[in-house]
Amino acid sequence: QVQLQESGPGLVKPSETLSLTCTVSGGSVSSGSYYWSWIRQPPGKGLEWIGYIYYSGSTNYNPSLKSRVTISVDTSKNQFSLKLSSVTAADTAVYYCARATVTAVLFDYWGQGTLVTVSS
Amino acid sequence: SSELTQDPAVSVALGQTVRITCQGDSLRSYYASWYQQKPGQAPVLVIYGKNNRPSGIPDRFSGSSSGNTASLTITGAQAEDEADYYCNSRDSSGNQVFGTGTKVTVL
Q1: Which of A11, A30, A70, A79 is the most buried (most CB within 10 A)?
Q2: pLDDT of chain A along its 120 residues, tens only?
Q3: Cα within 13 Å of Cα(A67), Cβ side
Q4: What angle (nearest 5°) sits at the alpha carbon of residue A40, between those of residues A13 and B6?
Q5: Which residues from chain A sit within 8 angstroms of residue B35, using beta carbons?
């Protein structure tokens, strides 16, 4: 059974960089069958796709966040990571990591999510 | 436009049928997938492709599509189906988009 687990600071100051890591178990980030994704959900609001990375390192980002987002993969640790720079209160959200199939790009496994609050 | 629009809320009597719709130009070219999200939990995939259910999803959930509209139907809604439902698809650049979400209340 594939499991994903987000980790990182729950509180980030405005203008700083949000950094999260997703650790994958029961599967490999080196698989060519999947994209490794980040999705967020502000409190009481809907889901927003942030972006994803392929094992080769190729990425695709939400155009509205592209200038501030970097997703990377560490195959040796079976992890992938998110960095979001210059955060504001609008970036306060539950951040999910998820696995997406390459063939249909559907999100079949999700982490439990982690709340990141942007506040001084 | 790559936006996906859903009705904010629908209600259904226990055991009855409810259809949730998702509208967007990208749906003319790409299938939608559907996710169920209960409070405090991560979303769960319930329908993908033309009308496919992942293992463990009850067969009362079904999907369909016509033109720019994708639909999720719950036939014989149960109390445990009360949740938020989101559609998802892609645009021509491979960017993913989620719908605005529909809150389903089972009466």
Answers
A1: A79
A2: 999 999 999 999 999 999 999 999 999 999 889 999 999 999 999 999 999 999 999 999 999 999 999 999 999 999 999 999 999 999 999 999 999 998 877 899 999 999 999 999
A3: 3
A4: 135
A5: 47, 107
Q: Closest residue of A to B93, CA-based?
A: A60
Q: Please indicate if any CB of chain B lies within 8 Å of the CB of A44.
A: no
Q: What angle do CA B42, A16, B97 make, to 5 degrees?
A: 35
Under 8 Å between Cβ of B68 and B89: no
Q: Which residue of B has its CA nearest to A50?
A: B96
Q: Give the number of other CB atoms < 10 A from CB of residue A81.
A: 21
**CB nearest B98 (choices: A46, A111, A113):** A46
**CA–CA separation, A96 and B78 (whole Å):** 27
CA of A53 vs chain B CAs: smallest distance (Å): 12
Flag if A104 and B94 touch (Cβ within 8 Å): no
Q: What one-character DSSP code corresponds to residue A11?
A: E
Kindly write down the DSSP assignment for every residue of B49-75, as one continuous string.
Answer: TTTB--TT--TTEEEEEETTEEEEEEE
- B57–chain A Cβ distance below 8 A for any pair: no
β-pair type (A48-53, A107-110)? unpaired
The answer, for B94 touching chain A at a CB cutoff of 8 Å, is yes
Token pair belonging to B1: 């436009």
